[in-house]
Specification:
296 residues, mainly beta, Immunoglobulin-like, 3 domains, four-stranded mixed beta sheet, 1 helix
Length: 296
């Protein structure tokens, strides 16, 4: 019984204290009401090129005491991507008494693309000379090369000739991860000075359903210390007449290609070009070059 009376007294004291605080704040003119945020559209669609101010489009705020406080509205946070490449934007607004209000809405980019990789050179190296010149750019973050990771189940031994499967991975600030499966080739030392095939790029992105011509990427071949233009057909190259005055060209028949690209199926494809040169005295050497095509 004593405990019950004690609890009743404590409850009465707490109620009286709360009522007294209410009377005090009303008499003192203290505003306990925060601002309210109004969002015109629940889904905001903008371009990745739009300025940050576009995120505030259609967002207003008002306060019972201060009136219009739209100028106080800020973007507090933008989530990473979730379903259908949408993000959630959180807004905050303030009044003169320091009260804070929050509201959210979905964000969708009309022209978003996942991060892209760029290969400056072929992924072929003589032992001990590996220098992976790969970069990445993103439509939201710009240059994200420093975020690239190389993942491989193989132990890549840079002084041991062989082909090593690996994957480049990179993520942007929105949590979107791009991956590029590649093959890193460590060549035998005997391949130094072997003919080489030069491409305009070693990685390209092509749209679904588009036409694809592998020879459109072949710029030239280097045989010995001389560079030769590549033309359709047979060409007129002969190892015994390199001193002729007329232009000597290499035909595409000398540069066969293995082309698995299917532009109707998204994915990463490896196109392989090769060239075989008879240097005399039973010295026959075959070189190759790889082009990675990402269909998306």
């Amino acid at each position: 019984m004593y405990l019950l009376r004690r609890c009743s007294r404590l409850l009465l004291i707490a109620t009286l204290a709360a009522f007294a605080f209410f009377l005090y704040t009303n008499r003192a003119g203290v505003d306990n009401r925060g601002p309210g945020i109004s969002v015109k559209e629940p889904l905001l669609e903008i371009s990745v090129e739009d300025p940050e101010e576009a995120l505030l489009e259609g967002v207003t705020a008002s306060d019972p005491t201060d009136g219009d406080v739209t100028d106080s509205v800020e973007v507090e946070n933008i989530s990473t991507f979730y379903s259908d490449k949408k993000r959630l934007v959180t807004y905050v607004a303030f009044d003169s008494d320091g009260h804070v209000a929050r509201a959210t809405r979905e964000l969708h980019y009309s022209d978003y693309e996942s991060p892209r990789f760029f290969l400056e050179e072929p992924l072929q190296y003589l032992p001990g000379s590996v220098n992976l010149k790969v970069s990445a750019r993103d439509c939201l973050d710009g240059d994200i090369t420093s975020a690239i990771k190389l993942v491989s189940d193989d132990v890549i031994t840079t002084d041991q000739p062989g082909s090593y499967k690996a994957t480049f991975q990179v993520a942007n600030s929105a949590g979107d991860v791009s991956s590029l499966p590649v093959t890193i080739e460590i060549l035998d030392k005997s391949m130094q000075g072997a003919p080489s095939i030069h491409l305009s790029t070693y990685l390209d992105y092509v749209p679904l359903g588009s036409a694809f011509d592998p020879y459109a990427y072949v710029e030239s071949v280097m045989i010995g210390n001389r560079e030769y233009r590549v033309v359709p057909g047979e060409g007129n190259y002969n190892r015994n007449d390199v001193d002729r005055d007329e232009e000597i060209v290499v035909g595409t028949e000398m540069v066969p290609v293995r082309n698995p690209v299917n532009t109707s199926e998204p994915g990463t494809y490896r196109v392989t070009y090769s060239i075989t040169i008879d240097r005399g005295h039973t010295d026959v050497v075959t070189s190759s070059a790889s082009l990675y095509i990402v269909v998306r």
